[in-house]
Design brief:
3 helices; Thiol Ester Dehydrase, Chain A; homotetramer; about 140 residues
């Protein structure tokens, strides 16, 4: 079983729109915060990614299903898990919850790219090992 | 053949991130602008939607493929077309271009909801007729 | 002496721009989060504001001084204090810190408005009392 | 008299909040778009700034007065003029209009900084001449 990483946040006016609910694009922001903290907990902090390896993760594909809306003042929980891993890419499943209600599900495809020019790059072995651990590979 | 609606925009600092490229969530903002103008050209302006019918479109699903990054000062073109239509929903395909380079492709699933409480609602017949025309249905 | 309310946050890619630093408008988002939590700690939560009184705070004036830039992964601290109080308005001073470095100082003028139509409104006495306490009035 | 540069935009859901109006921080985004196009019309495009001189403008101070709210679907006009000019800095006055109603007034203090490290820098003479022309200096 893959590890589940949790990140909590609250909804502010800046996240909502005139429909009275969280604007649909802003769940991608919530997901980025949760994903960044999940990677940090796995031992893959942004700082190291760029300064040590000159490599960053870029988003190649996202699929989002909106089930229920979040509203101002809601306390949300972003759950992140690794569900796929390649030599230069990884797939995460992220789910955003309010208590026991699932609001949004995202599948996010990440690829490694060189910071300098954005060209595709292989993933450093240390990262692959850490993502493999989170995925539950032996 | 379905109609193609075009919307042009430029990339500013507010759209970019520290990777030097447009932040991935912001293409959803570009797509919303293009989609809103496409609906307006079809004869479905937001103002009428809410004030006359008490109904709005909400985003139920998005699938985004990122192919090439956009950068500061780029002039982009959002193409929107209707590719699916139901009694309470519609699917749009949107593509974001820089000259002849396709940067991002989105499939956006919209559903009708009552503005007052967000409950699912059937689409007004006049809208369905207009979306049907844009879809190329006879 | 007025009370100081503290709120902590981290900087993500979504907050930065192609200059490699936090985009200047986003400090207003950081300030809103800190201000909302400060008001909540004083006993003035958004939920109560709208549902019980039908009143909200709107921003009437902001003055921002940018001293040093924040960068990706930085851990920031927003300090909020009440520095002025009227029958229908309040002024807050907010300062954003990274460790012992002051990055940004904001003065934010708030006014009470009716949620329904945005018209100016007097502040409920209970709120004025709580803001007065935070201001250090006897 | 200083030149007035005009930029037009429309308000979309992405710009609004659950109060039903444009979120206060987003007027800074509207102002950046208007400012960037004003500088481009003066002959100071971003591309040249960074690639030719390695210099960018950074925002040092903003003062914003909010007079009337903008709403979804509004067509707005951003007027930008140069009102101050120094060897390494410039001050712009920006006003955001809906038809003949003034909604927001901003005073924006810009300073030149080196792109590489953000250190203060003198303004290239060519830019100073162009800003001086827009300011109405002889």
């Amino acid at each position: 079983m893959s590890d589940i990483f949790q990140y909590r946040l609250r909804v502010y006016y800046q996240d909502t729109d005139a429909g009275g609910i969280v604007y649909h694009a802003n769940y991608l922001n919530f997901a980025e915060r949760g994903r960044t903290e999940a990677l940090r907990e796995m031992g893959i902090p942004h700082a190291e990614m760029v300064t040590r390896y000159g490599i960053m993760f870029v988003v190649r594909q996202v699929k989002i299903d909106y089930q229920r809306p979040a509203r101002i003042d809601d306390e949300l929980r972003v759950e992140t898990r690794v569900v796929g891993l390649g030599g230069a890419s990884a797939t995460l499943r992220q789910e955003i919850w309010r208590d026991n209600d699932s609001l949004v599900v995202l599948h996010v495809g990440l690829a490694c790219a060189r910071f300098a020019d954005g060209k595709a790059a292989r993933m450093p072995q240390a990262w692959q090992a850490r993502l493999g651990l989170a995925l539950g590979q032996e």
